[in-house]
Write a structure and sequence with these properties.
214 residues; Arc Repressor Mutant, subunit A; two-stranded antiparallel sheet; globular; AraC_XylS_family_regulators; DNA-binding transcription factor activity
Length: 214
């Protein structure tokens, strides 16, 4: 399998391609993001919602093209709350029937044109990376119930789940960079390495060492 990322227009997370020469199964772990994907071999154009657990995806030979949206961007691009597609893969036609996309560049233009960057959502995600839910709600000026509703609509998760996913994603990035697991636990905000190990198993379904193995 060959996977590659490249920079995207402002507001989008990245553009990516994945090419495989034979059928395979890929483990996709939660990262808080959502993706618009196109498989030219089958003509399928579909959206990957925010995941709460690892997904085992059967990958057919060929190249898959993707536009990754940052956490919180889903509703502005697709017109429905993110929780409506949580843990799902949905044809784009079910969300935006009027969309007519025939190429990767069409996908990028579609997402970039519809994306609305909301500073309040960025602030919400940033606070939940560093403090508890009650403190985040107080800093933003929302009640806990209002924060929950905002998070479900924008990110697809209630605040505590969003916090777990963002912390897990940060830990994965550190581990992939080669940081020792004990240091990953400290830097990502886990109580200790055992806490990190439990969360990785819960969200990814396998131990950290297996998850980052080339």
């Amino acid at each position: 399998m060959v996977y590659a990322e490249r920079p995207a227009p402002a507001g989008l997370a990245c553009l990516w391609t994945r090419t495989v020469s034979s059928p395979t199964v890929q483990r996709v772990v939660p990262d808080g993001c959502t993706d618009l994907m196109w498989a030219p071999a089958t003509g399928s154009l579909f959206v990957a919602g925010p995941d709460t657990r690892a997904q085992l995806a059967e990958v057919a030979p060929g190249t898959l093209y993707g536009v990754r949206l940052p956490p919180g961007a889903f509703p502005s691009v697709f017109g429905v709350p993110a929780h409506a597609v949580r843990d799902l893969r949905v044809p784009l036609s079910e969300l935006v029937p009027s969309a007519r996309l025939d190429s990767f560049s069409d996908m990028v233009a579609f997402c970039a044109a519809r994306l609305v960057v909301d500073p309040a959502l960025a602030a919400t995600a940033s606070l939940l990376r560093t403090c508890d839910v009650a403190s985040a709600a107080w800093e933003i000026g929302l009640s806990s119930r209002q924060l929950r509703r905002r998070c479900l609509d924008a990110f697809g998760y209630p605040p505590k789940v969003l916090q777990r996913v963002l912390r897990f994603d940060a830990a994965m990035r550190l581990a992939w960079d080669g940081m020792p697991f004990a240091s990953v636990a400290v830097e990502a905000g886990y109580a200790d390495q055992a806490h990190l190990a439990r969360e990785v198993r819960a969200l990814a379904g396998v131990p950290l060492g297996q998850l980052i193995r080339p």
